Amino acid sequence: MQLQHYFDGKFQTFENENYVGVFNPANGQKLATVPMASKGVVNEAVAIAKEAQKKWALVPAPKRADYLFAIGQKMKEKKEHLAQVLTKEMGKVIEEGRGEVQEGIDMAFYMAGEGRRLFGETTPSELANKFAMSVRAPIGVVGLITPWNFPVAIATWKSFPAIVAGNTVVWKPATETPMMAYEMAKIFDEVGLPNGVANVVFGSGSDVGTSLIEHPDVKVISFTGSTATGRKVAELGGHHLKKVSLEMGGKNAVIVMDDADLDLAVEGVLWSAFGTAGQRCTACSRVIVHKDIKEELEKRLLEEMGKLSIGDGLDESIKIGPVINKAALYKINSYVEIGQQEGAKLLTGGKILKEPPYDQGYFYEPTLFTDVAPNARIAQEEIFGPVVSLITVSSLEEAIEVNNSVQYGLSSSIFTNDINKAFQAQRDLDTGIVYVNAGTTGAEIHLPFGGTKGTGNGHRDSGIAALDVYTEWKSIYIDYSGKLQRAQIDTE
């Protein structure tokens, strides 16, 4: 399969473009080739989007929402097909693939509902015979730069609120997972989304991503990816005075207190740490455990980890799929070596799986360290793989301090049956998402998604908070007094 860019309502190819392969990380099978766009192609797509936005902004928001309803319905009809494509190109197990597609469906229907809201405010004026209100206004062309680990969910978090608010989008998906973007482009085409409203341009971050950030007609950049890359996006976007929304790394922890339900805690840790082979920004990478139950928790984790099946995610019995590519595999392994050099105790895992049936893919054993110092590199730096560090503490206060000691602030979790500890934790944990008696993953689409510190720059994906990224507030004053009223000067 040879993928094509999608803009101006057409699938397009261009002469002299380089193509790169798309491979199944479970078995190395070549799935497709994808074009690498030049700056000229980006410029053409942005010009189309700019012209389309002028008309799209004048379409009543409820009518814009009708297209999102249609997109959501089409995704629902194609759910299994989309999930199969997702698992093939990204590697996550099929049940997670279905869940991710469902997240996109939910976002379509949720943001379509905003087409009949997009609320502003009316307020009393301080002067007689004067009306005051605020409304949301679209901004223009939005550039979306999305990652490979959630190739459709994150794209819907960004594109659907932008579209319903009256913007047009130019979307650059990750080069590792372009097939889901291609499938979404086909859906945009099938539902008759007006030409130029949603555009997909394939290519590298250095070429297409940079071109979007630097383009004067792209007014908003929404990026999800590593903190290092996000910092560069922020610097370049700031130079060009763009609104930039960043959702970046995490070093998320599950706190397990001495009064916790250990069976539930183990289940929460396993799902959070090893789902998607640990390749989630919300993945549990640290377990902060009370000293009185440390040995029992270790025992139970080891027992349950031994039951985890590893393999091709299309197999319904598999619980852990491959990591995305060879570079990721060796990065993960390098951190395991660092952990051992730092003196942490390796309880299980720590190996690249190279023997059949794993030899054609990128598989890493679920890995558990214990006796990890809070300031160790494996406890501070994002590994993005199935590696968990156990850190021992003596109190809730110490657990919260350890949790907050990293540069990231995306997600945190506490398992406790003490309501007072639960409320103290949700107040004091310095993360954008806090779970009580659940793992660090599983955000719902109607609440804001994002974090503090090195995880983001204050904006949020998902929920109505996402609309703040893609709209400007416009304050409107209508004076029907028939005379000039000079605000505060004439209020005395």
Please name the CATH architecture of the largest domain: 3-Layer(aba) Sandwich
Unreliable runs, pLDDT <50, ≥5 residues? none
Mean pLDDT: 97
Taken from the alpha-carbon principal axes, the silhouette is: globular
Total strand count, please? 23
What order do the strands of the largest sheet run in, or round the barrel if closed?
Answer: 14-17-18-13-12-20-21
Strand content: 15-25%
**Helicity, in percent?**
25-40%
| CATH domain fold name of the largest domain | Aldehyde Dehydrogenase, Chain A, domain 1
| Largest β sheet strand count, sense and barrel closure | 7 strands, mixed
Broad structural category: alpha/beta
Oligomer: single chain
Rg from Cα: 24 Å
Any idea what the CATH superfamily of the largest domain is called?
Aldehyde Dehydrogenase, Chain A, domain 1
- The CATH class assignment of the largest domain is Alpha Beta
